[in-house]
Amino acid sequence: QTICPVGTYSGLGLIFLESKETAIRALFTDSFEGGAGFSVVHLLVAAGLIYTLTLVTFNTAIPAGLFVPNILLGACIGRAIGQIVYEHVGLETHRGVYALVGAVGMLAGYSRMTVSLAMITL
């Protein structure tokens, strides 16, 4: 609620200004109070920015983790796909599950430990 009017929020603000754990938890939920949710455009813009910033920090010599940004990137992409399926295809799906699958898929591709990561997620 930093710069938004009372009763509104920004999906990009939630992803970038809150802690990463809070943002990931919000991406894993199905819906918010009052019928609020993420827009597909905000999710794809956030995924592009996270990807770019992760590439920049990976190529610099500063100690920055890659684990949480990859989870967040996968969750944004998965949630965007879940939103598209929910809004345009018309299937009644849990959008947070798409975010979870996207996060696990991104992490599996990054860390190359697919079987153990699938067992941890289960």
Structure explained in plain terms:
- By secondary structure, the protein is an all-alpha fold.
- It starts with 10 loop residues before the first helix and ends with a helix.
- The longest helix has 23 residues, at 67-89.
- It has helices at residues 11-17, 20-28, 40-59, 67-89, 95-111, 114-121.
- It is globular and about 40 Å long.
Quick summary of this structure?
Helices cover 69% and strands 0% of the residues. By secondary structure, the chain is mostly helical.
Average the pLDDT over all residues and give the rounded result. Answer: 83
> What proportion of the residues form beta strands (DSSP E)?
under 5%
The dominant shape is globular
Oligomer: single chain
Q: Provide a count of the helices.
A: 6
Report the structural category: mainly alpha
For the largest beta-sheet, the strand count, sense and barrel status come to: none
Span between termini: 34 Å
Q: How many β-strands, per DSSP?
A: 0
**Proportion of helical residues:** 55-70%
Element order, helices and strands?
HHHHHH
The gyration radius over C-alpha positions equals 15 Å
| Uncertain parts | none
